[in-house]
Amino acid sequence: MTQVRKRYLLAEHTIGHDDLKSLAEWLMTDPWLTQAGLVREFEKVYADWLGVPYAVFVNSGSSANLLMYYALLASERLKNKKVIVPAVSWATTVAPAIQFGFEPVMCEADKTHWGLDLEHLERLLKEHDPGAVILVHVLGVPNDMEAVGRLQKQYGFLLMEDSCAGQGSRVHGRNIGTFGTLSSFSFFYGHHMSTIEGGMVCTSDPELHDILLHLRSHGWSKDATPENEERRWKEAGTPAFNRPFTFYYPGFNVRSSDLNAHIGLSQMKKFDQVVRRRVENHRIYQQRFLEAEGVSCQQSRDAEICSISFAGLASSLEHRDRIGAALRENGVETRPVGGGNMSRQPFWAKVQDTIPMPMADRIHECAFQLPNHPGLEPEDVRFICDV
């Protein structure tokens, strides 16, 4: 039995003692804790960092995905309710399509970056002419966004960009999350940065931003600009006394709080440093895997990859089991990659047929994750690769 010298967790939280000290000092000032000024400040700081005009802070990345789907429905811009969804993704990337009565059509995974396979995507676009497409940057490895952009112009769909596991990744000099009509991010405890729980929906579209603000908070206009609130109130014609409690959309309550936003603002001060460490670790992993025999890994052309964890691909299901056993014996945590082929998940099988897809099925049976977080130094990554 190998003596474990150190435990390598798949993810470690980024909230440090400095964040907690700052939070404790703030709490002692008896501040307003629910959504207020710090939420708005965090949204502005994050939008400026990402490179878009608007960001809406919510209670999770899953809620961010939920709002993306429903904002497109509420905007009445969709030419139909067909949506292309990625085979390799997360449950709550696909689930809103079922919950809101879309017609989801699943797209095969690309052999290189594991996002949308472009040849299959174009065949589906020709066959179904969908109103929307949602893609995932799998574990932070970007899709081919230039090609997706060309297809969007040709076929006229609205694009949702699930960037929950990829903030900090850049392609062609742009942050992922700036290409779609809407984009989502997650601030879960073990992700790139954390607000404990939390997420963000981003957009460059002022109308969609206004809709998102309504949907986040019950469907009312409390968070809307005074101009938009007055316009909607006059159109609705409700009594003036009832004006504060007028609901313009069948909304949700997926707000976060100023407490979470305070942590987010603290995290943003050191986020570029976190990104640099993750990018460097990913480069070492990728170099070692590309030099190795019997295993392969994700790649993305012209990209700087800030992965939430590194994904490898074994040669078979049995090979992955042997790798997993060796990793565990040496104190290295590992897991499958997302849901693999999501059409093989029980929730999908209840409403749709399982779809054989060679690459997505291979990822389902052979892919595994390796740790990548700011607590890992290059020598740690090299040891994991040696294992």
Describe the protein.
This protein is of the alpha/beta class. It has helices at 17-27, 37-50, 61-75, 91-99, 118-128, 145-155, 206-216, 226-236, 258-268, 271-291, 317-329, 346-349, 358-366, 378-386; strands spanning 54-58, 82-86, 103-107, 132-136, 158-162, 170-171, 174-175, 182-186, 199-203, 296-297, 303-304, 309-313, 367-371. The protein has a seven-stranded mixed β-sheet, with helices on both faces. A three-stranded antiparallel β-sheet has the order 7-6-11, with no helix packed on it. It has a three-stranded antiparallel β-sheet with strand order 10-12-13. Helix 4 links the parallel strand 2 and strand 3. Helix 2 packs parallel to helix 9 and helix 5 runs parallel beside helix 6. The longest helix is centred in the last third of the chain and has 21 residues, at 271-291. The protein is globular and about 70 Å long.
